[in-house]
Amino acid sequence: MHAGVILSAETDRKGVAGMITTHDVERILREQGLLCRADKNEEAAPVGWITCDSRDVIPGTLFICKGAEFLPEYLLEAVAYGCIAYVSEERWGTPKTVRGFVVRDIRRAMAVVSAAFFKYEPGTLKLTGITGTKGKTTTAWYLRAMLDEWQREKGKNKTGLISSVENFDGNCRSDAVMTTPEAPVLYEMIARVKEAGSEYMTIEASSQALRYHRVDGLRFQVGIFLNISEDHISPGEHRDFEDYFGAKLSIFRQCETACVNLDSDHAHRILKEAKKAEKVVTFGQHHEAQIRYRILPEKNQRQTFEVTCPQFTEQFSLKMKGSFNIENAVAAIAAGFVYGVPVHCMKKALENTSVPGRMEIFVSRDQQICAIVDYAHNQLSFQKLFQTVFQEYRSFHRIITVFGCPGGKALNRRRELGVLAGMFSDYVYVTSDDPGIEDEREIASEVGSYVEMAGGACDCIADRRIAIRSALERAGADTEKTLVLVLGRGSEKFQRIGRQLYAYPTDANIVQELMAASAH
User: Fold this and answer.
1) Which of 35, 46, 129, 163 has the largest CB neighbor count within 10 A?
2) Which domains does the chain carry?
3) What is the pTM (predicted TM-score) of this model?
């Protein structure tokens, strides 16, 4: 199946692949109770690669036929490129030289076979899995920076990262297309990080990754649960909040130490599930948290906070704006605490780390306009962001918000974000954000109706660049200092329109260009 942009920048696959054969694939699937039937073949053909993307097939590939939108043409394309076998929930007509394996659950099978092919051994690489409704990316970057700083001091390699912004396999950086990639790509990345000599890897674990078994078989040395709020409710994602929450909680089944935010909604239930891990570490402002923090007055235009835990009481500061990022920083500190990262490495990392598309600030030359680009894209992140700007940007008296909602998924966002934007903004521009196969104008119109329901004024402009330009022009015409919030996409470089991904400038790039042009 076409799965978008290939995440691995490497073309040399030598070293990360295992030595398995088609007979091994049959045995593994049978042992896991996944095999329904297998085409007979006396010879054990060596498997040279594994993928679920027909464009990534090379001679000797085992091809995975997965997805609700899978088409027989993808398998025919894979056969033409040299695949020797396929795994599917259906029997397909292929040449006798191509062996078929029919399984009960294609996604579980994909993870099992990927783990075997890429020689995954739990514990040989220390993995951290991070889940929650908001803050996963920033927490992942904070923790990765702490581990990198610690490893640098010891003369060791940088650590691996899988995030919704960028992935790093120990040698190469690549743009992310999805928060947590499919199992073949995920296990390949882990193998590359290990091959590069790294000892740690930080992974964002989305609810979709947990529900659809992309991370099956992984053993997280640390699992972080940040927070929970209703999101991703749609026919193609989660049927209801309970399904979404349950997917998130399932991370505790496969981690050694669980780090739990006691300030989260439903903290009692999260903590109860966390006991499935071997050890639990709690963090937050809650008085019972093992790693407890309190926010201090801003110092040198930086957010500062104090952390108290059994081993230390220390003050930290952040390079990034947004008081909600303190919570993300403390989550990273909790994981660093588990791993034994020295405090000075934690401090240095937090003082120097920023994340593309997260609280990026752009101020006009006359200081009248402040544009904030942020990835806030669901109810919880919108609530936190508006709370932050009201507290930290009191000299700005007007707020103009630009955002959109995706097509075909997270349908609850249209009402929730529309209402919040309408309540807390002086003007709203509703625009496109991954419309998919839906009409972007119809999505914007639906969202706009909720903005107006909440008493807000809005325009619906499908072209995102024009919407941002209109917001900046409106702010420039205002006599009062104005905040322009450009939300939802952050550093994303692609938009999903129809069934394809198209390159698109990041919100930060658009804002920078437009503000620079208006200054001349």
Assistant:
1) 129
2) 20-117 (3.40.1390.10), 126-352 (3.40.1190.10), 360-519 (3.90.190.20)
3) 0.89
